[in-house]
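Quick one:
INPUT:
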């Protein structure tokens, strides 16, 4: 019987180079299995002390055999003495193969067809006649099993590539359609600056899809780019047309507003206060419907138009101020009535309050007009008293309404029962020391009490 050279203790099964996945698994597995002792200072044992192994044996001369199916093969030997753990190196090689297969199984879902084929080829070569001890038949069966899964994964990868191309087509088409949608906007409602930026952003997005996404066939790519480029060209043409028409429109707007300014200036010295005020309102309505000039010109035209009106309205105001002096005595009389009206509040006797207010309202109308500057102020004070009386009247009606009161009393009784029950539950929870339950009951009790107080208040 011949023997093979003693294998290097730190070596690994490398009949083929394998793939990165295989090499990583072997490196990982070699760290998990203790390395045999150094050959320089071997710890040997006698042949009689060699332990048995279900998948291998060691001959008297140190030759190492592996059981491979129905036969056995020589995979190494120890001519200078059998180490204390003679199977460790070969078991580690078997573990390295297992780790390579395990890593391939784990990474199968992320691998492409090319990597799958190269890794499978490497694994099949490695498990063909490895210098390793273990259940080699099971190891080969495992490779066969993962090979079947690998074929499914390759088909899945082809489907994924097709789906990726379809997704890329949809993404490119979406960019084109969004660009075309921008061009399809009503020019009068288009925000040209923002839309121009949106088109530039879409161009960047297109370039990003070209760099990162799967490539489309040339005919499809060219057709989509033609549509996208055409949309950008059409947008630029429409923008130029819009601003050209805008310049013409602004020139017409300036002419129209200059004419309105001339009419306003012609009226500014009129003393027909009512008629001229109406004329100025008509001019203002025309101004609002007139087209806009450029912002700078429009602001300047508006300032001239307002200045022409201001002359008239300043004169009318001076006239009104002179008239207001005639109403000072009326103001004093109405302020005295307001003092009398405000003494009605707070309302303790609704009938007396209503009678007093009617008397004040009658005298108020008899007094007549007050200065326009004080009109809103004194009217607001009287309206406040009137509102208070009206609210008191409505509250009294609600309080005395039999149907409303019956509903309130029924709800009041229910709430009182619920409050009593919650108070009892709260007391029990506090006695039991259940702080979470007590907190929850306390919140519910606070809500019920608020409702109860509100109903009681409405019935008073």
């Amino acid at each position: 019987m011949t023997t093979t050279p003693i294998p290097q203790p730190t070596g690994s099964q490398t009949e083929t180079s394998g793939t990165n996945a295989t090499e990583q698994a072997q490196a990982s597995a070699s760290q998990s299995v203790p390395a045999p002792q150094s050959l320089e200072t071997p710890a040997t044992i006698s042949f009689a002390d060699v332990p048995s192994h279900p998948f291998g044996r060691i001959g008297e001369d140190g030759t190492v055999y592996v059981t491979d199916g129905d036969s056995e093969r020589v995979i190494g030997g120890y001519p200078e003495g059998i180490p204390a753990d003679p199977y460790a190196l070969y078991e580690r090689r078997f573990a390295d193969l297992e780790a390579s297969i395990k890593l391939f199984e784990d990474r199968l879902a992320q691998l492409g067809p090319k990597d799958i084929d190269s890794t499978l080829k490497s694994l099949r070569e490695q498990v063909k006649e490895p210098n390793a001890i273990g259940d080699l038949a099971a190891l080969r069966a495992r490779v066969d099993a993962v090979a079947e899964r690998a074929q499914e994964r390759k088909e899945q990868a082809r489907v994924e590539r097709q789906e990726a191309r379809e997704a890329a087509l949809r993404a490119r088409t979406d960019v084109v359609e969004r660009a075309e949608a921008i061009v399809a906007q009503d020019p009068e409602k288009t925000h040209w600056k923002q839309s121009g930026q949106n088109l530039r952003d879409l161009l960047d997005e297109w370039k990003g899809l070209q760099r990162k996404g799967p490539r489309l066939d040339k005919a499809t790519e060219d057709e989509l780019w033609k549509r996208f480029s055409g949309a950008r060209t059409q947008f630029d043409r429409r923008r130029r047309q819009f601003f050209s028409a805008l310049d013409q429109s602004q020139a017409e707007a300036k002419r129209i507003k200059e004419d309105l300014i001339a009419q306003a200036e012609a009226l500014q010295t009129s003393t027909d206060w009512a008629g001229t005020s109406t004329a100025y309102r008509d001019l203002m309505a025309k101004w609002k419907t007139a087209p806009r000039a450029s912002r700078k010109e429009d602001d300047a035209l508006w300032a001239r138009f307002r200045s022409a009106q201001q002359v008239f309205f300043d004169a009318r105001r001076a006239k009104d101020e002179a008239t207001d002096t005639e109403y000072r005595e009326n103001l004093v009389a109405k302020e005295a009535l307001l003092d009398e009206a405000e003494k009605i509040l707070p309302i303790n006797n609704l009938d007396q309050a209503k009678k007093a207010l009617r008397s004040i309202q009658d005298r108020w109308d008899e007094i007549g007009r007050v200065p326009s500057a004080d009109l809103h102020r004194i009217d607001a004070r009287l309206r406040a008293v009137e509102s208070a009386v009206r609210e008191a009247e409505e509250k009294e009606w609600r309080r005395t309404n039999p149907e409303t009161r019956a509903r309130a009393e029924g709800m009041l009784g229910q709430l009182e029962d619920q409050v009593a029950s919650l108070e009892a539950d709260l007391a029990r929870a506090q006695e039991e020391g259940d702080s979470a339950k007590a907190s929850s009951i306390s919140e519910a009790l606070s809500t019920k009490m608020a409702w109860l107080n509100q109903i009681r208040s409405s019935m008073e």
